[in-house]
């Protein structure tokens, strides 16, 4: 069978669903109400930011929330509010987006990059334990691809060593661990509303936390050092203006009503894809498994591990030509020279290194298609990576 890259007929010619989806009626109505009110800033007396923050905090089981301009700033503010200072160390996973580490640098701390579980690719409690020093102040689990990290194991390590836990839940809106929503399982959790995320206003973020004192400290970091309920021109601490706008909150607030339905749609696609991949002779590709304790995977990504030797660059080009574009995924954080030059420290991370060679992703927008179209993914993979053939640039 001739690959589309070589002039053959592609597996799929129709476009995948666009992201974000069109505005629904509730979003359009609320956005227009905010625009017409003229109360666009979070401090002008509107209610959208406050309503979004309260609703999201409730859903996360956290009690308190602070809406911010993006999740990188949210991670920074959470760290600072929880007492992480210049020179402290924060342990982050080796397989994650660069912002998990740059937020630590922004807080003046040192990212210490620890390896991930070789199966599910989430931060490994044993690797965290091995990375702890006398300067370690916090752990940053990442709920990668919409599935929850093993929070019981990581919280146990943190408790033994008196460390704070900041959950990077940027990709995990609606995910749950042992029946509990992520974000509210550590000292603070941070969500993203960037353009690719399950809820988006183009940009934006939200911090949730359980303790009132932590909320007040994080709120102060995000509001120019003011004291919650204090004077407008009183600045007892150093802080920044990191606030979300009312317009962004108006885009996001109605989304909470449809989030579960959209997660179920992605889950159905992922389940169908997993069934189809299991039927390919030789099983050259599998879905990266969910971590222990997963009770709700929000499926921000469908991570796929390729088990046969392959030319990665050519494989991605061939899949795109078949109409099924895949993402190459993250490099190990420890190989990002800008981070190490800025002071980040990384040990040997073989699981993350293997993932960077073997794991590819299907993006969230594609998972919003009808589950029957998971067959396109399966057919394209079976065409590009037939069982028993180590297809490379030379053999294709």
TrEMBL record:
InterPro entries per the UniProt record, alphabetical: DegT/StrS_aminotransferase, PyrdxlP-dep_Trfase, PyrdxlP-dep_Trfase_major, PyrdxlP-dep_Trfase_small
Signal peptide extent: none
Superkingdom of this protein's organism: Bacteria
Record keywords: Aminotransferase, Pyridoxal phosphate, Transferase
UniProt-recorded Gene Ontology molecular function terms: transaminase activity
Pfam families referenced in this protein's UniProt entry, alphabetically: DegT_DnrJ_EryC1
Necessary cofactors: pyridoxal 5'-phosphate
Family: Belongs to the DegT/DnrJ/EryC1 family.
Protein name: DegT/DnrJ/EryC1/StrS family aminotransferase
Organism: Nonomuraea typhae
